[in-house]
């Protein structure tokens, strides 16, 4: 279990570095974390990739372990995309 969490974290960090470099990361504040539903509510900036304005909304996460790294009030950066029709966080990092 520990190895899976560490491996998942390392992959997420590695992917996040490239996302920060290309400007696809979006600043946000965590409003609510719902681990049982696998969702997080974020107050976020514009998501250019999805042609979405800044707003507060609920997102699914690609990896449930992402929710363990978020707490209400945290400032984060994320990348989202459509996964099986749902807008989903695919990369996550702490705000710079």
Automatic annotation (TrEMBL):
Query: What species is this protein from?
Result: Reyranella humidisoli
Keyword annotations? Signal
Signal peptide boundaries: 1-21
Q: What is this protein called?
A: Copper-binding protein
């Amino acid at each position: 279990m520990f190895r899976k969490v560490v491996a998942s974290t390392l992959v997420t960090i590695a992917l996040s570095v490239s996302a920060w470099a290309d400007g696809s990361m979006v600043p946000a504040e965590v409003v609510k974390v719902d681990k049982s539903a696998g969702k997080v509510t974020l107050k976020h900036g514009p998501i250019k990739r999805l042609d979405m304005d800044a707003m507060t909304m609920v997102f699914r996460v690609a990896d449930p372990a992402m929710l363990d790294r978020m707490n209400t009030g945290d400032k984060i950066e994320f990348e989202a995309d459509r996964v099986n029709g749902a807008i989903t966080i695919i990369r996550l990092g702490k705000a710079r």
